[in-house]
Amino acid sequence: MKTVTVQSQTTIVEKQKKESVFKRMWKNRTLLLMCLPAIIFFAIFAYLPMPGLYLAFVNYDYSLGIFESAFVGLENFRFLIMTGDLWKLTFNTVAYNLAFIILGNFLQIGVAIMLNELRSKWFKKVSQTIMFLPHFISAVLIGLLAYNILSYDYGTLNSFLKSIGMDPVQTYSNPAIWPYIIVVTFLWQSTGYGSIVYFAAIMGLDKSILEAAEIDGANAFQRIRYIIIPWLKPTFIILLLFSLGGVLRGNFGLFYNLVGANNTMLYESTDIIETYVFRTLMTNFNFSLGSAVSLYQSVFGFIIVITANWLVKKFSPENSLF
């Protein structure tokens, strides 16, 4: 019987191999149709523009176009390295994103757990709504609110300091305090929205396990530590891997509207790859340099994702992406 079963399974596999790609596509046409919008989106915005990467290796001339401009090889990358801009931009972008990812995820997990522990359904819904609202506030409006608070002449902060006899603070000329302002602003805007994923994961936990732990004498902190947090581990790892893919892609809208693109006094601590590319394109009109930075950004991000996934696969294979 075992021999017959193995032979039948082998026959099925061979038939599947012999089936043409088109037949398999036709069999799965419903799933493919559902995926079609995403396929079209990535085809247009991710794959069709890829030949434009050649721009990073030429000295772009408007009159000649991309493929007729003079080929300079790695000269654009060499210029970035020699000026020191590439290292500063990389450090700022990675440092900010690591702060966003680590602090953001831990804060989102904490908020999701606290929401789960609330007993009042009405208060839970109101709390979720209030924390969710900042996600829908435009980055332009956030920049305006920040300016109204931090402006040297008319800001709320300095008006308060003057009223109690203290000297006003020159926020927009002090690069040391802006990492804290940017990180806090990001966490304020994203925590409520990000906590939804973790809260949904907690809702998928079998309540009978928590009830059994409570009957056995486990208090709230013990249930959180030994049941809920281990349950959230796979979700945390998957979201972490997704986030690492964009570790070199800064939040351009937030940085641009909070700091601006031309405040040279704050470049030391606030200039990231996105703002640099924007400035090279819109102010200096250097398309080749901007494309070189973008290519470096994509390749570096790809390497980080592959490396992180390899580490996860080595220590926790069931939680890796591929």
Automatic annotation (TrEMBL):
Domain ABC transmembrane type-1, first and last residues per copy: 90-308
UniProt keyword list: Cell membrane, Membrane, Transmembrane, Transmembrane helix, Transport
Domain of life: Bacteria
SUPFAM superfamilies the record matches: MetI-like (SSF161098)
Membrane-crossing residue ranges in chain numbering: 31-50, 94-118, 130-150, 177-205, 226-248, 287-312
Membrane topology: Multi-pass membrane protein
Pfam family, one: BPD_transp_1
Subcellular location(s) per record: Cell membrane
Family statement drawn from the similarity comment of this UniProt entry: Belongs to the binding-protein-dependent transport system permease family.
PANTHER family noted in UniProt: ABC TRANSPORTER PERMEASE PROTEIN, LACTOSE TRANSPORT SYSTEM PERMEASE PROTEIN LACF
Protein name: Aldouronate transport system permease protein
Organism: Metabacillus niabensis
